[in-house]
Design brief:
90 residues; alpha+beta; Glutaredoxin; 3 helices; 23% strand; globular
Length: 90
């Protein structure tokens, strides 16, 4: 089974939109607030080369630490495109 982890911030409209879309689609996800989990977020930014762009999504196999990372502007342009990437890869 794959896990969807979304790095978000409470004030981010795009983050709220993708979380709402995932909920409507019945896709479970873990929401990681980048403000409350700053050290974890810094680690993800270092691994992905992300420059503080959210929502960043990680899809990983729950049995190991490998996975896919999707960064806004690099891997997707809008929440519809991100939703399709998630559905395709879970």
């Amino acid at each position: 089974m794959k896990e969807v982890i979304i790095f978000t911030k409470a004030s981010c409209l795009f983050c709220a939109m993708i979380k709402s879309n995932l909920t409507k689609e019945g896709i479970p996800f873990y929401d990681v607030d980048i403000v409350k989990n700053h050290d974890f977020w810094e680690s993800i930014m270092n691994q992905t080369g992300n420059d503080k762009l959210i929502p960043t999504v990680i899809i990983k196999d729950e049995n190991d630490n490998s996975g896919l990372a999707y960064v806004p502007g690099k891997d997707f342009k809008d929440t519809d495109e991100l939703l399709e990437l998630i559905k395709k890869n879970i």
